[in-house]
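Quick start: load a record and inspect it. Here is ornithine decarboxylase:
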Amino acid sequence: MRTDTRADRRATRALVERRRAEASALLSTDAARAALALHGTPLLLLDPEQVRRQYRRLRNALPFVRFHYAVKALAHDAVIAALDDAGSGFDVATGDELELLTRRGIDVARIIHTHPVKKPSEIEAALSAGVRTFVVDNDVELAKFAGAPGDVGLLVRLAYRSPHAKSDLSSKFGVGPFEAARLVEQAKRQGTRIAGFSFHVGSQLDDPARFAAAVSETLALMVDLERRLRVRFDTLDIGGGFPVSYDAPSATIEEVAARLRPILEPHVGRLDIIAEPGRVMVAEAMTLVTSVVGVAERGDGRWYYLDDGVYGSYSNVVAEDVHPLVYAEKELREGPSGIATHRWATLGGPTCDSTDVIARETLLPELAVGDLLVSPAMGAYTAVTATRFNGRALTPIAVMGRGLATGEVTAVGASDPRAVSIV
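Running the structure step on this input writes:
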């Protein structure tokens, strides 16, 4: 984990200013202005080219790894299209996500199913569609694959505690070495092939050393079990969890890869090494624009009420403990006016619920009803985890630049993967 040093504080200021410049550049484009004029706020601006760039960064950093985008992070058709064109694989956790991909004509050979717990009917549907890589982590799930086709390969999910991750998944999924060995032995008796192992170090983990340790421990376990149980594994799934810089810098893709390369490279050719990144692919590809709908002075100071909140696109605040940056559009347009004109404020969402609070102690200029606010890096676990609480519509997504079509602008819900707003 990073410590709070003077260098870290300088890096944080640099990140805040870089995000400010990116948001300013985006809002100054004709496409963004046209989208806001058409749709109003709240509005999510999605740039598929940024998704392509992130995929290329991953491929350049770890060229021997096959990447499967975790569709759950942002199940939008423009994202799927961009990654399909780039040659990415895909990782699904439900039958609905699988249907989204097959409806687009994605080759099922590029799809893996990694939810450790599945309905028998979901397994049957995935097998019928042609999916051949699945994840299990207990006896009951293993038994569901009895009689599966011989070319099906199961990955046993391992649990690695990562208390510094935003979401430590080890308490819900995965097994330790002893239980993993038992599952491999049971699979042999059942006649089901265990292709290898998978793990997930935790979501938003800013700790390259933990990634490296998990890979090393998994490889050591695979060698030990191959020797003791007379089996042969061919697949290693290193999961996801690559961090994103929200309000503070985090390890880059390249920094994580630098720790993994020397450990993984000796196994290239012998093992099919795959990964399931989600957040790092899409977080920086989408920006949220909201507007002030109310202003109040309360016992704890100034409150601004916005037209999106934690039941909507800011759902990452509650579900992911993410702290998005928030910029006033007037500052992006006119430049910073100086700290003397700013005041600390609380940002509340639009629902009639006291838990709908986006941020506290946010330093902002004086704002009025109708003023715009901008939050960058809002692509991951935002639109997909939003609700319609209080009957509010899901925030539309406007696709900027290269989308699936051109020349048409339509307002669509963020949860509808079949339609996109093209600007």
